[in-house]
């Protein structure tokens, strides 16, 4: 209904945007206390803390394996469909990288006025991003990290607290009970969020379509980059409808369709908010309450996955970068494709679970294969839409992970 409303009456959609923003604020309000309560009580529930190693290694294995599969799907598809070939045919010539840089730099608009200036000013190398991710694991002030909605440092703290409490025996019992109760209370608040979700989701979609000028504004945007958008969406569809369900069936021994139906509220929220972090409360709710995932698995796998495991983002970054190369008539050889594969994976890990974070970390991938960063301008118009699609796949990937890892932990 939100899509119809915002698509046909953009003005009405814009008026409703306020309601959608309220929904996002409500979700973000729950995120931090939820992560702490879910992680501390989940880890403390493990009983024997040495189990944490096994849970951690399985989770990491799943994250790395599925992200790699997603990137490979993206690369194969974009090389096969060649959505950027039209750009090459249009210019009827192949150009070198420096010519491509010049051509794009030939833009007469002053650099700081160009829409992509914020990306070109990003000077981070792969080493910087690695340092940032690893350095970001340890907060200097846990309250500051919470206030800034930084998930990774809060996860580190909660993990340590949960592990420490479970090792303190009798002395830690009261605190563990406290976090268990807090977790239960947070789940009650999320129930409330579930009730208002249909309205919130509808308002967000109506508002965004309203901003795009309704269907008549959105359609030309989509058509202009139609082949590229179709490649990204096709890749996301293969990963989420074929690869992940197969893994869930094989390793999680669960019915993928039932599992997906029960995860649907979280997936719709991901699509409407374009943020894995804001969706986290519903992801946890669907996993625990509807799909019967144990609290210890959900409390560990889902918060961590919301920032680290982004299959959709990784796939999209690989497709976008190769598309930009194709548009500039630059052929990437196998060694460069390998670099795209590795950096796209890393860039997805480094992306925060907030709207359009992937677009920013893509600079890293472009720089790694020496492509003009301003090529991002080519895909900017449609990114808000693809962001929603990839966020949905990111959340689906986390949920499937919880389903697979929960069985493994139990088994
Ligand atoms: N918006 C995505 C997410 O929250 C990240 C991205 O921009 O790819 O999962």
Name the CATH superfamily classification: Sodium:dicarboxylate symporter
Based on CA atoms alone, the radius of gyration comes out at 22 Å
Indicate the CATH architecture: Orthogonal Bundle
Distance between the termini: 43 Å
CATH fold-level name: Proton glutamate symport protein
* Attached small molecules: aspartic acid
β-sheet strand percentage: under 5%
- Tell me about the largest β-sheet: none
Number of domains: 1
Report the average pLDDT across residues.
85
Tell me, what's the shape? Answer: globular
Structural class: mainly alpha
Number of strands: 0
Estimated helix fraction: over 70%
Q: Report the top-level CATH class.
A: Mainly Alpha
Low-confidence stretches: 88-95, 100-118
Oligomeric description of these chains: single chain
* Tally of helical segments: 19
Could you state the order of secondary-structure elements as H and E? HHHHHHHHHHHHHHHHHHH
Can you describe this structure?
The protein has 411 residues and is an all-alpha fold. The protein has helices at residues 2-8, 10-45, 51-81, 85-91, 97-105, 117-120, 126-135, 142-147, 151-167, 173-211, 214-224, 226-252, 256-273, 276-290, 295-308, 311-327, 334-350, 357-368, 380-410. α3 (51-81) packs across α17, α13 packs antiparallel against α14 and α13 (256-273) packs antiparallel against α19 (380-410). It binds aspartic acid. The site of aspartic acid (ASP) has 16 residues, from α18 and α19. Residues 274-276, 310, 313, 351, 353-358, 387, 390-391, 394 line the site of aspartic acid.
How is the secondary structure organized here?
Elements: H1 2-8, H2 10-45, H3 51-81, H4 85-91, H5 97-105, H6 117-120, H7 126-135, H8 142-147, H9 151-167, H10 173-211, H11 214-224, H12 226-252, H13 256-273, H14 276-290, H15 295-308, H16 311-327, H17 334-350, H18 357-368, H19 380-410
Helix pairs in contact: 1-2, 1-10, 2-9, 2-10, 2-14, 2-15, 3-12, 3-16, 3-17, 3-19, 7-17, 10-13, 12-16, 12-19, 13-14, 13-19, 14-15, 14-19, 15-19, 16-17, 16-18, 16-19, 17-18
This protein binds aspartic acid (ASP).
Aspartic acid (ASP) is lined by residues 274-276, 310, 313, 351, 353-358, 387, 390-391, 394.
């Amino acid at each position: 209904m939100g899509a119809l409303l915002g698509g046909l009456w953009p003005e009405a959609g814009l008026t409703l945007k306020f309601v959608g923003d309220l929904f996002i604020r409500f979700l973000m309000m729950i995120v931090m206390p939820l992560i702490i309560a879910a992680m501390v009580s989940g880890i403390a529930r493990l009983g024997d803390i040495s189990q944490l190693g096994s849970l951690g290694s399985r989770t990491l294995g799943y994250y790395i394996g599925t992200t790699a599969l997603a990137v490979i799907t993206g690369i194969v598809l974009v090389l096969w469909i060649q959505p950027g070939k039209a750009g090459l045919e249009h210019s009827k010539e192949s150009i070198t990288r420096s010519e491509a840089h010049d051509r794009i730099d030939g833009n007469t608009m002053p650099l700081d006025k160009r829409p992509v200036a914020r990306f070109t000013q990003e000077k981070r190398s792969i080493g910087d991003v690695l340092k940032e991710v690893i350095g970001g694991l340890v907060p200097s002030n846990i309250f500051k990290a919470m206030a800034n909605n930084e998930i990774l440092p809060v996860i580190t703290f909660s993990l340590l607290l949960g592990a420490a409490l479970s090792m303190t025996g009798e002395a830690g019992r009261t605190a563990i009970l406290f976090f268990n109760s807090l977790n239960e209370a947070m789940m009650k608040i999320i129930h409330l969020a579930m009730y208002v979700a249909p309205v919130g989701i509808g308002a967000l979609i109506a508002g965004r379509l309203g901003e795009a000028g309704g269907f008549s504004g959105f359609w030309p945007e989509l058509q202009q980059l139609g082949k590229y958008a179709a490649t990204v969406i096709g890749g996301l569809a293969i990963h989420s409808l074929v690869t992940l369900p197969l893994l869930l069936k094989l390793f999680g021994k669960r019915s993928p369709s039932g599992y997906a139906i029960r995860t649907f509220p979280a997936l719709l929220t991901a699509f409407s908010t374009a943020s894995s972090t804001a969706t986290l409360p519903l992801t946890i709710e669907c996993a625990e309450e509807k799909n019967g995932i144990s609290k210890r698995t959900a409390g560990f796998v889902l918060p961590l996955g919301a920032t680290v495991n982004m299959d959709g983002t990784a796939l999209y970054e690989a497709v976008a970068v190769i598309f930009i190369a194709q548009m500039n008539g630059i052929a990437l050889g196998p060694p460069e494709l390998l670099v795209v594969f590795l950096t796209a994976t890393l860039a997805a890990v480094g992306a925060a679970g907030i709207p359009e974070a992937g677009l920013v970390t893509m600079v890293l991938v472009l720089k790694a294969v020496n492509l003009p960063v301003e090529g991002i301008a080519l895909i900017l118009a449609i990114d808000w839409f693809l962001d929603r699609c990839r966020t949905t796949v990111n959340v689906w990937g986390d949920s499937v992970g919880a389903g697979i890892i929960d069985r493994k932990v139990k088994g």
